[in-house]
Design brief:
Layout: H1 5-9, E1 24-32, H2 35-49, E2 59-64, E3 67-73, E4 77-85, H3 98-106, E5 111-121, E6 138-142, E7 147-155, E8 161-167, H4 172-192, H5 195-222, H6 229-269, E9 273-274, H7 281-375, H8 382-409
Parallel strand pairs: 5-8
Antiparallel strand pairs: 1-4, 1-5, 2-3, 3-4, 6-7, 6-9, 7-8
């Protein structure tokens, strides 16, 4: 069996919902957390509840004094959800249990979302949303009309986003999944919105980069005969800043796109229908959330386009520099050819002079030899000496010239 088979197969069951019946309160928290932050959360949770948790797992559901506690570990964040049955006489928006409030307070700096869902049944329904403190909520019939949900998406005094779900005909299984969708919409919406401050910051940077790139483009067009090296240096510095900016934001923008897709998918899964005169929940969210997603995507696209423009200008400048280098190389090669031609002429002149000098020395030796023979009493007539020594000297000079030619050819 493949070593990863069991773990990969169990991914189908890695994110179960909490199954329950109304009335109930659900307290949901999302904390930005890496591996160490998640470990710290479990430590605080263990200290508050007295329970031991599996740090190697990605989720766990436990029951504590009639309450259901579930934690989940995600890539960038961890979630904590507690279901508390609502007893008779309990206020609609009751504060969380003391131990849960302590855990949330210990992770306050990392808290990105806190949602309180009140689930009511037809028998506990107060008759209007105003009775629950809503003045102008958005609402929809969901699950094919088996439930109705409302929310104004405003933070209350405790920092919670309040959602009210009225169950008409959902069983415990479907009710748990419906609440999970609502909680995921809020959590992933907030996670997707993390890119908004970064996008606004980058918008100012990109404006400055665009002005700088435009100036470099104008200089390149106006100074075609100028040295491109200063422009290349300035463009390289701009490209380095753009690359640093892209590295800093690429992961965040990609995460925003992924989270937004989950939000859109969960809204579709609600199967909404209009209730009374309220705007639908999904319409209310999308009308305000989509511009954030589109703005972040536009900044990301603007960043990529600017980097591509800088790369194209860099290619143009490098082409200019390459052409100038080739012209310089051609000039250098022409100069080298002229020098080689002059050296060849000089070499030929030297060879000719060398042959003349060698010929002079050969005939001088012959003359010295004849004079030596005459001193010994051997007299050779001039015409005889010329007949013998002339061809011999010519042969020696010819052999010398042939040898020089062979060396040059080699």
């Amino acid at each position: 069996m493949h070593p990863q088979r069991e773990r990969l197969h169990n991914e189908l069951h890695a994110r179960p919902s909490i199954y329950f019946t109304e009335p109930a309160h659900l307290y949901h928290y999302a904390f930005l957390a890496d591996a160490q932050g998640h470990a710290d959360l479990l430590v605080h949770l263990s200290e508050a509840t007295g329970l031991a948790f599996d740090t190697e797992a990605v989720q766990q559901i436990v029951t504590l004094d009639g309450k259901v506690l579930k934690w989940e570990r995600h890539t960038e964040f961890s979630t904590l959800t507690v279901m508390v049955p609502k007893g008779a006489g309990v206020e609609s928006w009751a504060p969380p249990p003391a131990w849960l409030g302590q855990v949330a307070e210990s992770q306050r700096d990392a808290l990105i979302n806190a949602t309180l869902v009140l689930v009511e049944g037809d028998d506990t329904w107060r008759g209007s949303t105003e009775a629950y403190g809503f003045t102008d909520p958005a609402g929809s019939q969901v699950g094919g009309g088996d439930a109705t949900t409302w929310g104004d998406f405003r933070l209350d005094a405790g920092g919670y986003t309040r959602l009210l779900l009225l169950n008409h005909g959902l069983n415990a299984f479907r009710l748990g999944r419906m609440v999970r969708r609502l909680l995921e919409i809020e959590t992933y919406r907030m996670m997707a919105s993390l890119a908004l401050p970064l996008a606004k910051e980058l918008a100012l940077e990109l404006q400055a980069y665009e002005l700088e790139l435009g100036e470099l483009s104008d200089r390149n067009a106006e100074q075609e005969d100028a040295n491109p090296r200063p422009l290349l240096t300035a463009l390289s510095q701009l490209s380095a800043r753009l690359e640093r900016s892209g590295t800093r934001s690429r992961q965040r923008f990609s995460a925003t796109e992924a989270y937004a897709r989950i939000v859109f998918s969960r809204i579709e899964e609600l199967r909404e229908a209009r209730v009374d005169h309220c705007p639908r929940l999904g319409t209310f969210l999308l009308r305000r959330f989509r511009p954030t997603v589109h703005y972040c995507a536009a900044i990301h696209q603007r960043q990529q386009s600017l980097a591509e423009s800088a790369a194209r200008l860099n290619d143009l400048l490098r082409t200019r520099a390459q052409v100038e280098i080739e012209e310089q190389n051609s000039s250098i090669l022409g100069s080298l050819n002229e020098r080689a031609s002059s050296q060849l002429k000089i070499q030929k002149a030297v060879e000719g002079l060398s042959i003349i000098v060698i010929s002079y020395y050969i005939f001088s030796l012959f003359k010295l030899g004849l004079e030596s023979l005459e001193a010994l009493g051997i007299v050779i007539p001039p015409h005889t000496a010329a007949a013998v020594l002339g061809p011999l000297g010519g042969l020696i000079i010819g052999l010398l010239a042939w040898r020089i030619w062979r060396v040059k050819q080699h």
